[in-house]
Amino acid sequence: MAKNNVGRNRLVVGAHYGLKDWMAQRLTAVVMAVYTFTLLISFLTGDNFSYEGWAQLFSQQWFKLFSLVTFAGLYYHAWVGMRDVWMDYIKPVGVRLALQAVTILWLIGCAAWTVQILWSV
């Protein structure tokens, strides 16, 4: 009897990133949208549009943490997207791994810079 490779019996190979990263990208997109909405409301209801006004907003601990969580979500969102681009379009394994490593290092650097900026206010 021939083995049927359809439905639940289908053989799936690969890294199995699918649903988990799809959900993570949707969640990080929602976090970024809520942050953008919060920033927009703060801007529209604020009366001090100078550097001091923005520094006052970003000096509050809750807003620093909200910003940090949002940027961490942005970096993860970017990582998933770029990893998929590299996996889909760069076929030589060595080049793909090098590009993934450069992407990871760049995003880690951006995350460190984000922390430095947020906690310097």
Description:
This protein is mainly α and 121 residues long. Helices cover 76% and strands 0% of the residues. The radius of gyration is 20 Å and the shape is elongated. The termini are far apart. The mean pLDDT is 89.
Architecture blueprint of SSEs:
Layout: H1 18-45, H2 51-59, H3 61-89, H4 93-118
Helix pairs in contact: 1-3, 3-4
Subcellular location: Cell inner membrane
Membrane topology: Multi-pass membrane protein
Pfam families: Sdh_cyt (PF01127)
Average residue-wise pLDDT: 89
Sheet-strand content, in percent, reads under 5%
State the major sheet: none
Uncertain residue ranges: none
The helix-and-strand class reads mainly alpha
User: C-alpha Rg, in Å?
Assistant: 20 Å
Number of helices: 4
Record field, number of beta strands: 0
Shape: elongated
What separation lies between the terminal Cα atoms?
Answer: 70 Å
Helical percent range?
Answer: over 70%
| H and E order | HHHH
Concise account of the structure shown:
The protein is an all-alpha fold and 121 residues long. The protein has four helices and no strands. The protein is elongated and about 70 Å long.
